[in-house]
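Problem statement: downstream parser choked on a complex file, so we are re-checking the raw output for the magnesium ion run. The parser issue turned out to be on our end (a line-ending mismatch), but while we're here, posting the original submission so the record is complete.
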Amino acid sequence: MKTVQEALELILAEAPPPRPAEVSLGEAPGCALAEDVVADMDLPPFDRAMMDGYAVRSGDPGPFEVVEEVPAGRVPSREILPGTCAKIMTGAPLPPGADAVQQVEKAVREGARVRLLEPVRPGQNVAPRGQEIRRGDLVLARGRRIGPAEAGALAAAGRARVRVYAKPRVALLVTGDELVPPGDVPGPGRIRNSNTFSLGAQVRELGLACDDLGVVGDDPAALRERIREGLRRDLLLISGGVSAGDRDYVLPALEAEGVRIRLHQVRIRPGRPFCFAPGVFGLPGNPVSSFVIFEVFVRPYLGRTMGLDLARPRVAARLETPVARPNERAQFLPAQVRFEGTGYAARAVPWAGSADLFALTRANGFLVVPPGATYEAGALVECMLL
Ligand code: AMP
Ligand code: MG
């Protein structure tokens, strides 16, 4: 049975390489850039007023005659000569001759004239042309993840369309005869389906759409049909049916559909029985197990296919509670991790095992405990932050 590290290496090695595609800027957030983006002009494109006030010559003591008003979006028509100024709004181009703006609160208007309550320094409240970026400068390099700031910067740089690495199309198929929708009261022996919602949210958290292929019972023929549909996507996530039970049909159904399973069972707790083939993860039905496998393996896989590092950050934290029970598998224990003073502190949250989603709602990370390890309170332990 492979270790977590061995399994991760295999999964990343089998991930299909990122696929460049041109998209509109609105669709780009969440993707990595597939090109270097260079500024097509200086920004700001002109010397720009940073305050509402009066554009003056900085050496001029005034008082000033107001010769024009320049709102944002207009071009000044008058040169500022000694003894004159222009009323100017934030974002407007500075008139020729002026080299500073005094804010309106630090000036008094007396009819057509203005007096400054404080002198201005050269360049005060003015953003000179090209201060932010110059034509030809690199705005963002290939590989950069497009977040909110990057999306705005691309717009400012004139990129209505941009080459990115495409978002994979993900589908989610949930299996299990026992499952009822969350709005139903489960009959005898039944439980509510939670994985559609937790796994779907994990996919969407990455800015990806998740096609819901619904819930299929533990029936080989129905399973194969739904798997065939799911295999048309870039990634098919299947929940349940990958253990060694008599009615765990997912592996044989995948193989019958021509999928070559590359990995089955990993030394991880929870989540051991998961399986992987390029384009498919079979996740254990237990909600915390499927959650952990998504975080530890599916996220990095999706990242690799998008040209991004989507692995969750890891930090070292001082343990406030001991980890007494060793396991031959690496353990991911739901934990509260917080920054305190000069470093991180962590405590495991009470947890009833791989079905206990409620413990997960009280956690913001996992203690990552290597096989066989135990820790006393005060020890430094690796934590994965969600
Ligand atoms: P399985 O992996 O199919 O053997 O399921 C393992 C455990 O997880 C069983 O107790 C199932 O009832 C439970 N389970 C399976 N699928 C789901 C689901 N979608 N939501 C909540 N629990 C599930
Ligand atoms: Mg099942």
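For whoever reads this later: The longest strand covers residues 330-340.
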